[in-house]
Specification:
The complex is a heterodimer. Helix content of chain A is 40%, strand content 24%. Chain A is built from ten helices and ten strands. Chain A has a six-stranded mixed beta sheet, sandwiched between helices. In chain A, strands 2-1-4-5 form a four-stranded antiparallel beta sheet, covered by helices on one side. In chain A, helix 4 packs across helix 5, helix 4 runs parallel beside helix 6 and helix 6 packs parallel to helix 7. Chain A is globular, with a radius of gyration of 18 Å. Among the domains of chain B are: 39 residues, no CATH class; 169 residues, no CATH class. Helices cover 74% and strands 1% of the residues of chain B. In chain B, helix 12 packs across helix 15 and helix 17 packs antiparallel against helix 19. The longest helix of chain B has 80 residues. Chain B starts with 25 loop residues before the first helix and ends in a 5-residue tail after the last helix. The chains are: A alpha/beta, B mainly alpha. At the A-B interface, helix 3, strand 6 and helix 4 of A face helix 16 and helix 17 of B.
């Protein structure tokens, strides 16, 4: 416990605001998915979002790079407000990396091509430089030897690590993780979590939807609990796990930690 | 005894692999498993083998024992009857019809001294599509692929060398307008303005500029042309004489051998050898006399041109007078008919005098117009730098099918992609237009579209617009195939997981980049079998043009059957056509399988 606490302290959190969400509402048709969300994420913060399924946690982080469109309120990412302006959206998306539950690698491209595609076409990086960057990040996620294979030839854990490397190649200032380990075998979860922990230790701003409570204890500086489209509770991990305030949170924690 | 104490089935060491039983492998294993696995299968296999044997026993001698040298079906039958007896003349094929009419089946009425042009176009086609179809070829070959769509029509139809350049200019103009406009007003406006400016250039300016250049060259060459013609006409006369000297004795020989054959037939002696000797002579005579008539035609053209050039100053003065007269006559018309271009258009109340006056004015206008046309044609002919023009009506045979097939495939593919994307677009009007287009075209038989192309389209277009028949048919075939293509590709798009779109979006790729780099490569790969089926269908559908009086290979088959020499030939012609089409379609199908294997990346 004390180990992880000291590790967390070493990761600096600045006062600079990375993401600000003000009175945000979203509906799917008539269904009110997200209700009056207010949230500020500082640069360098590692936030874990958890909650029962259908609570809107995935929708929330997908709103942060406008994979989902919110109908009311404001989302300001890196000082730019998300609106229907396509130029702003593409700009924000290139600054915000995202990893998906099902990895979503491009199966027709090799691992290396997956990693260099966006830098080459969006950032206009010369191919050679993009390949060097890609290899650097592939080494970081410990699979440089797979660079010339296709995603279909890799295991799930390897694919997710490639997906992380692919996002990192764009040198993002913020990383979003949408249940990155939910589709993986227990054996592979660890290798992905290790990569994510390493990333957190380097001071990346991370927002992570996950049920990995160990991960939350170890790296998060805040845990956000959502239910029925609302933020029910948020607190430092120790407080959150040891001393949950709302009844709903207690129930949720007893269910996922109880067995 | 407890369960745990019996451990005999637990391996203490791993077993090595063994070979399968010998009856299960190799040819014997295969035959046992697939043909003779049970008594019922033994019987069925033997029956099937017998059926295959008896079919082949009839077809193979028919195909490979066929007669290649004869000049009519009657002669064919005589040769067959001498070989295998009177009652079995249907037992051997009469391939002689293919031998004799081969060039018509391949090129239709395309002038035989210009066959090198479609041939070269075909070779260029292979060079142009090679870097697209196979990777590992030098990237520079793509330059040929880009130039091909401009060079090939020029090779086929001929005409001035500037025509393809002017067509290319349209793309250049469109590209720069697009680039400029999309910087200022966004990509959609850029695409629209670019397309519009290119269309404007093609429809309004390109042919005028090209004709203007030819006219100037014609004017500068006019005086030299007289001199050239005066020296070359006697040479051409000599050439005609030379060809006549070849044709005359040949004709004599053929007549002589024909008499010999007739005599032998009436004396009931064998004639197969005589017919075999006659055929090559007959074919040589045929090509020699067509050469002769070509030289003769050329001589006539030269003479006519010389006369025309000599009377050019006089004609031009007359043309000027006529034009003035036409303007004056038009100006003098009474108000009730002042704007009409046909007497039939006059109102019922119009007086007979007015009608007469209109008729007179129209006559002057017509004369003036046709004289101007004649003079302009002369300038264009003399000023031609390029290839001899060939009329669309002379295109035919397999060449026409390939031409229509290739352009249809080449154009319907991108159009189909655009339509599929349009159908899935969020832009309501674009989507409605694409859905309407696809559903309408798919709901209409191709034949009706072809009839519209051949007959009705001219009524809708402004008077005097010359719109080439092959071009019209190409457009119809293309949009027909594109509608099917769009649906095939939409199927591929629908099969892609939503995550691919999201991943592309999340990386910051814009719509077109995501489509080009992520979505289309995968969607098209999924759609390969459907796309190739559409291509094959399109290629076979080109034979429908024979219904609107374009003589493609099938049209020629009917024409050849209608001649007295080959009346009654059915199997050989249609068999040959089927064979040719099979070769094309089968290679497309094999290529698609190769492509699917090549693009296979999941394991």
């Amino acid at each position: 416990m004390s180990d992880s606490a000291t590790a967390r302290k070493q990761m600096s959190v600045s006062d600079e605001v990375a993401i600000e969400i003000i009175n945000m509402n979203k509906w799917y048709g008539a269904f009110h998915v997200l209700k009056d969300i207010n949230m500020t994420v500082n640069r360098g913060e590692r936030i874990v979002v958890c909650g029962p399924s259908g609570s809107g946690k995935s929708t929330l982080i997908r709103c942060m790079n406008r994979l989902e469109v919110h109908q009311q309120g404001q989302i300001i990412v890196d000082g730019t407000e998300l609106s229907s302006d396509l130029k702003n959206i593409d700009k924000i998306r290139s600054e915000v990396g995202m990893c998906f539950q099902h990895f979503n690698l491009f199966p027709h491209l090799t691992i290396l091509e997956n990693c260099t595609l966006a830098p080459i076409w969006v950032r206009k990086t010369p191919r050679k430089e993009a390949e060097e960057t890609a290899m650097h990040f592939l080494e970081k996620v410990k699979i440089p030897e797979q660079a010339d294979k296709y995603p279909g030839q890799l295991s799930g854990g390897q694919q997710q690590r490639v997906a992380i490397a692919r996002s990192l190649c764009m040198k993002p200032r913020i990383m979003l993780f949408d249940e990155p380990t939910s589709a993986l075998d227990p054996e592979m979860i660890k290798e992905v979590l290790d990569t994510m922990i390493e990333l957190a230790e380097e001071g990346m701003t991370m927002i992570c939807v996950t049920h990995e409570m160990g991960f939350a204890r170890q790296v998060a500086n805040r845990v956000i609990f959502m239910d029925q489209g609302q933020v029910v509770e948020q607190n430092e991990p120790e407080e959150f796990f040891n001393n949950p305030k709302s009844e709903r949170t207690q129930l949720f924690l007893s269910q996922i930690l109880g067995h | 005894m407890s369960i745990t104490s019996d451990q005999s089935y637990v391996r203490t060491e791993m077993l090595t692999e063994k070979a399968p039983p010998s009856t299960n492998v190799g040819i014997i294993g295969w035959i046992r498993a697939n043909l003779f696995s049970s008594w019922l299968n033994v019987v069925l296999s033997l029956l099937a083998m017998y059926a295959i044997y008896s079919t082949l026993a009839y077809i193979l001698p028919w195909v490979f024992g066929g007669v290649w040298n004869a000049t009519s079906l009657t002669e064919c039958r005589i040769v067959i009857a001498e070989a295998i007896g009177d009652g079995h003349t249907a037992g051997r094929a009469c391939w002689a019809v293919i031998h004799e009419r081969f060039w018509q089946l391949m090129y239709g009425f395309y002038p035989s001294d210009q066959y090198w042009r479609p041939n070269l176009a075909l070779i260029l086609l292979f060079v142009a599509i090679a870097p697209v179809l196979f990777n590992g070829l030098p990237k520079k070959m793509l330059l040929i692929s880009v130039a091909f769509p401009f060079v090939a029509p020029w090779l086929l139809w001929g005409g001035a060398i500037w025509t393809p350049l002017m067509a290319f200019m349209g793309f250049v103009i469109g590209y720069f307008v697009h680039k400029f406009a999309s910087k200022i007003a966004g990509s959609l406006v850029g695409i629209i303005l670019g397309t519009v400016s290119a269309l404007l250039w093609w429809l309004l300016f390109s042919s005028a500029v090209s004709q203007g250049i030819s006219h100037m060259i014609g004017a500068s060459r006019m005086s030299g042309e007289i001199e050239r013609l005066e020296t070359s006409i006697p040479l051409q006369e000599a050439e005609v004489g030379r060809h006549q000297a070849i044709v005359d004795p040949l004709e004599g020989q053929v007549i002589a051998i024909q008499e010999e054959i007739d005599a032998a037939v009436s004396a009931e002696k064998p004639v197969a050898d005589l017919i075999r000797t006659k055929t090559p002579l007959y074919l040589t005579l045929g090509s020699a006399s067509s050469d002769l008539s070509k030289e003769q035609d050329m001589l006539n053209v030269m003479r006519a041109r010389l006369t025309a050039i000599k009377s050019l100053p006089k004609d031009e003065t007359r043309s000027q007078q006529l034009a003035d007269a036409a303007i004056a006559a038009r100006a003098a018309l009474p108000a009730s008919v002042a704007k009409l271009t046909d007497v039939k258009e006059a109102n019922l109340g119009t007086s007979a005098e007015d009608k007469d006056q209109l008729e007179a004015a129209l006559k002057v206008e017509g004369e003036s117009g046709s004289l101007q046309d004649r003079i302009e044609t002369l300038y264009q002919d003399v000023g031609l730098v390029g290839l001899k023009p060939v009329k669309s009506r002379d295109f035919g045979g397999l060449m026409l099918a390939v031409l229509l097939g290739i352009t249809g495939i080449g154009l319907s593919f991108p159009l189909g992609i655009v339509l599929a994307l349009g159908r899935l677009s969020d832009l309501v009007i674009v989507k409605a237009l694409c859905v309407g287009f696809i559903e309408f075209i798919r709901g209409v038989p191709l034949i009706t579209l072809l009839f519209v192309a051949s007959v009705l389209l001219n009524y809708f277009l402004p008077k005097g617009t010359e719109f080439d028949i092959i071009l019209r048919v190409m457009i119809m075939i293309t949009i027909f195939a594109a509608a099917y293509m769009a649906e095939v590709i939409r199927g591929g798009l629908a099969a892609l997981p939503k995550g691919q779109y999201e991943a592309a979006d999340a990386l910051g790729l814009d719509y077109w980049q995501a489509q080009r780099l992520i979505i289309m490569p995968q969607a098209l790969k999924i759609s390969i079998p459907g796309i190739v089926s559409t291509f094959i269908g399109l290629f076979k559908d080109t034979t429908l043009v024979s219904i609107i009086a374009l003589l493609d290979i099938l049209g020629w088959a009917k024409t050849i059957q209608a001649t007295s020499d080959w009346n009654g030939v059915i199997w050989e012609l249609y068999g040959f056509i089927a064979f040719v089409f099979f070769i094309f379609c089968f290679s497309m199908s094999r290529y698609s399988m190769y492509l699917e294997r090549k693009l296979q990346t999941g394991h």
